[in-house]
């Protein structure tokens, strides 16, 4: 469901997939090749929400913010995650059931572990692996690790189906859902 609120209508790229069973309202922008999956809620009522290209907001995730929220390119917000922060950089994975609280900023090439709770106003630097309640930085990824993680994310989430196996990437799956009107 896509709805206007207080004169602001979501702007969705032609190549993005938004499930009819998601709720997208107000000052929201969704970039090229991105996907919003069933049950996801993106509420741009207090502040604007900008989602970059090739980013996926998975089932039952909630995006909302008191101020503006910017989500970069190639980001996956996992199932049932709650994102209520200022910024999530590029090439970030927010794990299933993770919570990212007010005024937090997540750098590029980060992984926020499943079930983690990132406290309000934290600044998570680039290349961080963050886990726990409250979440703590457990490691900094090296350049080689970043390259491997990025390659795995691109293969899993963004590349079309190939000889690697029958499973489509998340972006390819989004194209299939969109083509079938789901």
Question: What is the compact description of this entry?
Answer:
This protein has helices at residues 143-158, 170-179; strands spanning 2-3, 11-12, 17-18, 23-30, 35-36, 41-51, 56-57, 62-64, 69-71, 76-77, 82-83, 87-88, 93-94, 99-100, 105-106, 111-112, 117-118, 123-124, 128-132, 135-140. It is α/β, with parallel strands linked by helices. The protein has one domain (2-141): Hexapeptide repeat proteins (UDP N-Acetylglucosamine Acyltransferase, domain 1, 3 Solenoid), CATH 2.160.10.
Write structural notes for this entry.
This protein is an alpha/beta fold. The chain has one domain (2-141): UDP N-Acetylglucosamine Acyltransferase, domain 1 (3 Solenoid). The chain is 14% helix and 35% strand. It has helices spanning 143-158, 170-179, and strands spanning 2-3, 11-12, 17-18, 23-30, 35-36, 41-51, 56-57, 62-64, 69-71, 76-77, 82-83, 87-88, 93-94, 99-100, 105-106, 111-112, 117-118, 123-124, 128-132, 135-140. Strands 1, 2, 4, 6, 8, 9, 11, 12, 14, 15, 17 and 18 form a twelve-stranded parallel beta sheet that branches. The longest helix is centred in the last third of the chain and has 16 residues, at 143-158. The model has no long low-confidence stretch (mean pLDDT 91).
Topology:
Elements: E1 2-3, E2 11-12, E3 17-18, E4 23-30, E5 35-36, E6 41-51, E7 56-57, E8 62-64, E9 69-71, E10 76-77, E11 82-83, E12 87-88, E13 93-94, E14 99-100, E15 105-106, E16 111-112, E17 117-118, E18 123-124, E19 128-132, E20 135-140, H1 143-158, H2 170-179
Parallel strand pairs: 1-4, 2-4, 3-5, 4-6, 5-7, 6-8, 6-9, 7-10, 8-11, 9-12, 10-13, 11-14, 12-15, 13-16, 14-17, 15-18, 16-19
Antiparallel strand pairs: 19-20
